[in-house]
Amino acid sequence: MSRATIADLANVTRTHSSTIPVDIYRIIRAHGIDIHCIKASSKFNGLYVRVEGVPVILLNARDAPTRRRFTAAHELYHHLSYTGGSTELRPLFYSVRERELSAPEIIEERQANRFAAALLMPDCAVKDMASAELSPAQMARRFGVSVEAMDIRLQELGLCHATGRQRSRLGS
């Protein structure tokens, strides 16, 4: 799936919540997905599964709220990407490093992260905040994400250097 297609999917999905921060849990419920927090080890972030045909997202209750929001959006991508009601399960109860994943799985995980970023941090809103010279930390608070996720999104949109400093030329 191309970056443009992922952004389009995020835009359509976001119609269930037009606020900033995006109400990811409302969006998930609008898709008929059960969502639960469980206390798990720090190696577990989240999981999307279907239990007797019911889509379920599990999140680690011990993660920071910003991490749970991003993980929830990431797992929503997995729900939306499974066509035809696929019940393929790939439980990731422990952190899986990219070297342990197949090439298609690496691509899917990266796409899920791009989707989560596009959904939670819409490019127009990010560009508006960058134009208003908000810091990455200020933007992160408004979007309800971590500063690290915000920095990555700013880099992806070409709005800052790898050092985290915003460019003087933001582009249009």
The secondary-structure class comes to: mainly alpha
- Number-wise, the strands total 3
Residue fraction in strands: 5-15%
N-C termini distance: 25 Å
- What's the alpha carbon Rg, rounded to whole Å? 16 Å
Helix content: 40-55%
Largest sheet: 3 strands, mixed
C-alpha geometry:
globular
Instruction: Please write the string of helix (H) and strand (E) elements.
Output: HHEEEHHHHH
Give the uncertain stretches in residue-range form.
89-99, 161-172
Average pLDDT taken over every residue: 81
How many helices? The count is 7
Question: Main sheet: which strands, in order across?
Answer: 1-3-2
Descriptive account of the structure:
This protein is mostly helical and 172 residues long. The protein has a domain at 15-102. The protein has seven helices and three strands; from the N terminus they run ααβββααααα. The protein has a three-stranded mixed β-sheet with strand order 1-3-2. The chain is globular and about 50 Å long.
